[in-house]
Amino acid sequence: xxxxxxxxxxxxxxxxxxxxxxxxxxxxxTGYCAASYDGGVLLTPGSAQDVSKICWLAAEHGLAIVPQGxxxxxxxxxxxxxxxxxxSLEKMTRILELDPVQGIITAxxxxxxxxxxxxxEPLGLAPGVNLPSRGSCTLGGLASTNAGGIQAIRYGxxxxxxxxxxxxxxxxTILDLNNTLLKNxxxxxxxxxxxxxxxxxxxxxxxxxxLHSRPSSVQTALIGCAGTEDLFQVLASARKAFGGSxxxxxxxxxxFFIQIATHLGSSLxxxxxGIYGVIETGHWGDTEHxxxxxxxxxxxxxxxLLQDGTVAQSETQRRTIWQLREDADVIESPNDPCLxxxxxxxxxxxxxxxxxLQMRIAKDCKGVTCYVFGHMGDGNLHIMVGPAHxxxxxxTIDGAVYGVLQQFTGTTVSxxxxxxxxxxxxxxxxxxTPALAAMRQLKTAFDPQSTLNPSKVFDDLxxxxxxxxxx
Length: 471
Prior knowledge:
- By secondary structure, the protein is an alpha+beta fold.
- Helix content is 32%, strand content 21%.
- The chain has helices at residues 3-14, 22-26, 48-61, 113-120, 139-144, 152-155, 191-194, 228-242, 254-264, 292-302, 315-326, 329-335, 350-364, 394-405, 433-446, and strands at 19-20, 42-43, 64-68, 84-88, 95-99, 104-108, 125-127, 162-168, 174-177, 203-213, 217-225, 246-252, 275-283, 308-311, 339-344, 369-375, 380-386.
- A hairpin with a 4-residue loop joins strand 16 (369-375) and strand 17.
- The chain starts with a helix and ends in a 25-residue tail after the last helix.
């Protein structure tokens, strides 16, 4: 179907104003995925019933639908092609219930994470998931990608914080899987199939999140260590000292940290450390704990684990520390374009992986720099490699990142970003053949015509994994 035919099919159902094409579509920002609007049509339904009608018509006419959230994904999961339509839930922004006693919030999928944070804060509550794109990422996108973020070490991933959801299936069926109970063992927990499935099994239209008590105060520190092993010792000591009060433990290798610090004009710690970290702790209750993190770091200095460190003395300084960790887009400025990766390893394998990767990049990719940072507390590394102007170099860089990863066991090619289009051929590095077969069976059962986000996660062709010869 061409654009005019698609518009004629759907405009009577959801309204002409909600079928966006032409100049109205061209004026929109595509976010991180430049191909998000390549299909030429964007639908903006206002309710789950509208989504249901769209899916029913799409199934009847073999029309592919690509669900979209805040367009902050990094794996081309929202890319569209001619003959496909993008579907945004940006008009479904109602917070339906906020129960401070039960500790839940139920909202439509177009609500942003920041809106949840703002709604919960006056009640002394907060969602467990927190990430840099909080102002633009939607709850539907957060659930569909099983987002992690900077507090996973304390609260877990998105699936650990989602109690229930509503999803529209490919045939238009509205599947009510919503739940507000912490304990509910009534049959299969079907919501888990949709969390992290990237819109390939159904379109999430509503969900219920757990809310947690906000800390009465937080303490944030920026530290520098001689090497990864010392940072691991600090992490182990922090877990012992703070337990569940340890909210975040992040890491930045020098190439990443120095470029961000130079851009921000920050001199909070020495630029000569071997690795950098961010520690954030929370405190609940009336008693003060202002000196707890300072005392902890003093002990780390005495043990020879730290080369430098500072505890934020104000909210402004705290934000500066987090900017050093979260402003990864700065890397793109002088090196555009960069390739971004999101891998996971067991903690004891991280030093060897980073060392071997940097050597491999230096050997095979001349003139390219490898920037490493991430969530050290949960073993999730983010890697940016650039400049990568020549598309012919991308396969070589992929071969380095995933080839070195293949030398370690218990790893993943995607710790939190998902698979999308970019990682399909590498998925077999993280999932065995029987698991991939089971995934395909689920896809066929829920979406037999493959009209929901087709070709994402895997397509109908055999996946091409790296061979041992590529390592």
